[in-house]
Amino acid sequence: MSELPGDLKYSKSHEWVRVNDDGTVTVGITDHAQEQLGDMVYVEVPEQGRELEAEEACAVVESVKAASDVYTPLAGTVVEVNEALTDAPETVNQDAYGAGWLMKLKPASPDALDGLMDPDAYQAFIDAE
Amino acid sequence: MGNKTPLFETHKALGARLVDFAGWDMPIHYGSQLEEHHTVRRDAGMFDVSHMTVVDLIGAQARSFLRHLLANNIDRLQDEGKALYSCMLNEQGGVIDDLIVYFMHESWFRLVVNSATRDKDLDWINAQAGPFDIDVIEQPELAMIAVQGPHARDRVLSVLDEPARQSAADLKLFFGIEHGDWFIARTGYTGEDGFEIMLPGTEAVAFWNALSEAGVAPCGLGCRDTLRLEAGMNLYGTDMDESVSPLVSGLGWTVGWEPAERNFIGRDALERERDAGPRQKLVGLLLEDKGVLRNHQKVITDRGGQGEITSGSFSPTLGRSIALARVPVDTGSHCQVEVRGRLLAARVVKPPFARNGKAQIELD
Complex ipTM, two decimals? Predict the structure, then answer.
């Protein structure tokens, strides 16, 4: 079973969100998602400064098998992206909740996280899928 | 629930991710498709390919039937055990399937055809066989295990008993030999040396486990696809089908034009296409930009012509994306590919991309 860190929020399209001390949020794809997709061979992150609407397709993760869009779970501005993934896309497989993060956002509003799931709800969502 | 090979429970116990493949529950990988790919290029891996369809043609007229049925010339097979790759065409020159035929002896030829095309292949072969004095016998109880890689032969030989060991050791490339109800062939679909072994399904698990103990890694059909693409081998249903001929599928070399009087099915249509000059060709592409080429992406040539990727993926051996693409015949050395809304630069190359453990094209 995939591990689910308790301090994160989760989306139905299998992204995770971590709230940082400086008010930004970090976004990545869940361990469940990377496991389903298989070995990553290419990751495309959004441009820094891009304004994102909630649930907008903003990044691409490509495994040997297929390409998948990543949707931002919340509206916000891209303040930092994980450039290291360009040369080491396998980091997403190895450390989905850590070094495999995709981007940091400045949320558009303080209640942007409200619709997201806690770990238990996400686990139930995966199990039902 | 799909069809299951005799190794289904073994795959499950090994933690395979199983997918539906032409109605069969088959392993796509056992953890990492990339690692399995590298294992086959560098060491030895094994594939359960028991879903493939084995059809024996038995009877005195088997050879003359195959002269009619196959686009390649069966008379290239004069030594017992020798294998031949061929397309089976319809009257329009379209490819019904591609297959391997083994010359067992003069009244016995063995075909291995794709599982996804099993029903239509058997219907076609039976329909064409009518006027010939032969029996068409499917062998569904045979399992098939492909063992591939630079160390594959040694590992297989280490688990065979005499005299099978000696006869397998003596096999030349693209030959096979019977041993009791086993058939061992030095063929494959990866661009590496190795064996494809047909054996009774009841013996498959024991043989698989013996190979595993000898250091052969289980490999899924996921890496079989990236290995065959690197090796420049076509996949039926994606690189060619009934709507295209071998001449626009990189398979002109498999058409046995000589002797001119051999009137195989599809010959007239192929001759017309050859004489008019085929309008397209199948080429290899190496992506120069970052990204991944995928099936059905649009190709745009320097002269403004358009083509389409038939098989695209990431090449683990090259660390770059590669593809087979059907493009206009005047396509030059470079082209662009529309990848997710952007035009990326690609170089036109002659496959194979990689085989025998090594890259076969210059990267830059």
Answer: 0.86
